[in-house]
């Protein structure tokens, strides 16, 4: 009788049945994932890096020229996108960039019209074939961390040297005059340096795809890197060297900062005199051409009823017309201020009753003036590029406002205006009127505001907006029909209920649910980067305190990286 043959198992199954540990067979190949960027993120620019209001060369005021900031040298080497202050590490390819960037800046900064000045250095220990050396300024908009989630809108190439032209590369000499570089059988050996200098493009061409559409120039936008905004505009200075028998491409990509030179118009004569002599500004009554009026507000002011209070027993509510003014021209330099004025007039004055409600309304500052920024861009840079190729006004016209691919964000930026009792020329005439109260104020602008911009892929616009707020003593509401002089029947005041709220909720006045109209009055303004020649706006009051943003919410951060497909 023969012994039973032992069962054998395939190798790697550890003596178990093949169906127990066998790997499942794939019927389809594994999915392909998008390539993500792993490059170093450029740092967010600071307000000091973006402030160029006093740094435009050649501008003078009062007969004295402003001293230019000393130029700094930034060194970039092959394999790095960050600038280094030391050039001790050896690299056969490096680039130097000169810039007027402030001391705290971590990258070169260029202003519109400034020269991109520097040099490209090659250092070969052995003879090496080099076909060409060139430098390029590139601008692109990035909306995604995916490798193809960007669109190049600016390319300016500056050729330094080409071998096929028969040009002789410049050689670098040492102090004793001995050459440190030579050409051996058409190959380069030693140290060579090509200086370059060309203006940073102040505008870029755009070619539409419509029949008959020609080239259109747009102002080059500022570098955009802001937390919470999923669109980034970055600029790079790239050096490319083609070398070797197989024409290998070697690149250095340096991230740089760009700020356009947008100069505000000159101030009116009366404002210039006020700033020059240190006096207060003239009121809209004294200087009507120096102020721009927003749409008048027709408001109703009511006194809150509290127990044991006998205030305002004869007048329960009044109607008033409130007009807000901002100084002309409505183009302002960031980092300065916007002068403003408020004139409130009782439309139904009672000669037997003083204007307690109106004066209390002005004293408690129930009118708030804020700056709002609107930012419009495509979520997908590539898709946005194809859309604007067919319609360059796709972003600014609002035709695609309802699409999911279009991002349209509006938010308040900077502090609200601060107010005080007017003291300038013309304020006494307002004060003489019993049914009129006035306030003078100013709104301080942050120094790192994005300048106004309208290009095919980005819209940055600003408005000065008026908001009405309640107080502990008054209820304020905006009446819909501002043309109707007769007041609507006053509603009985309601004391707001007090209740505990969490971080994510807030107490709401019961009157907010009674269909009261909201204030919707605004005026478009323009924000630029450079002050005009002559006297500059002077602040009379410290800026208002800005509430700290809520850091409890997590914001998405998009990763960006230099492109490497430039051929």
Automatic annotation (TrEMBL):
This is Arrestin-like N-terminal domain-containing protein. Residues 107-205 form the Arrestin-like N-terminal domain. Residues 10-22 have a biased composition (Polar residues). Residues 494-505 have a biased composition (Low complexity). Pfam families: Arrestin_N. It comes from the Eukaryota. Residues 1-36, 481-505 are annotated as: Disordered.
